[in-house]
Specification:
The structure is a homodimer. Chain A is an alpha+beta fold. Chain A has one domain: Arc Repressor Mutant, subunit A (Orthogonal Bundle). The first copy, chain A, is built from five helices and three strands; from the N terminus they run H-H-E-H-H-E-E-H. Chain A has helices at residues 3-13, 16-25, 32-36, 43-55, 74-85; strands at residues 30-31, 59-64, 67-72. The first copy, chain A, has a three-stranded antiparallel sheet with strand order 1-3-2. In chain A, a hairpin with a 2-residue loop joins strand 2 (59-64) and strand 3. Chains A and B meet through helix 1, helix 2 and helix 5 of A and helix 1, helix 2 and helix 5 of B. Chain A binds a DNA duplex through helix 4.
DNA sequence: CTCTCATATTTACAATTATCTATATTATAC
DNA sequence: GTATAATATAGATAATTGTAAATATGAGAG
């Protein structure tokens, strides 16, 4: 992953509604109709946010019957974590470098 | 780390100039005057970006003589990685969950 | 004290983005 | 075919944010 792709994902996640959507999806797949109930926004606004999350690759969508299901693209998420974590820590700042687990 | 703090950091990093600043700082501490040479922006704009990066906690600054040095706050970075990585991957998306190393 | 250097702040403006209403699409049910 | 349901797109507007010019601050040097 390069800086350009990374920025696109960070831009997508760096917004109040969209980070909440991300949090909701962390426990698994959800359909749009269930998710939108939790937010005080209109359906087109929700759809707009989902498009941004999908366009950057961090979320994937799949159609089933007449519903659209969304889930986190864990491969892409791990690419992002690897990119961000690839940081040399200087002397006066200790780096813990913890393992990131999906429990 | 909660969603609010996370969003603030993601907002800070999700901008073209600031992700480049982040990349520059990954190899260690740098002073403002050296960094600004690499960018085609004015000094006030650079200062504005550094303020956003410092306010969210992902970058720390220290004054030495008349120069200001910036470096990545690795503790905060690891908090962010832990937060983002705390994701349950569903059945049809395999989770690699690689260890993030600072080499 | 004044001068210079490095950086920060203020103000204003331009570009981007989040949001809405209205409409379109796509699929199913009748 | 029409009607309904779930989601997407288009267009308009309001809010946010990136940028630069001008100015301020703070710390040596003389």
């Amino acid at each position: 992953m390069d800086a350009l792709e990374c920025t696109k994902i960070l831009k997508a996640l760096g917004e109040d509604t969209r980070i909440q959507i991300f949090e909701m999806l962390r426990n698994g797949k959800l359909c749009a109709c269930k998710m939108i109930e939790k937010f005080d926004i209109t359906q087109p606004t929700f759809s707009h946010h989902m498009k941004i999350l999908c366009d950057c690759g961090i979320v994937v969508s799949e159609k089933d019957w007449k519903w659209t299901y969304y889930s986190i693209n864990c491969d892409k998420l791990n690419e992002l974590l690897t990119y961000l974590g690839h940081t040399k820590c200087n002397s006066n700042l200790t780096c813990e470098c913890k393992k990131n687990n999906c429990d």
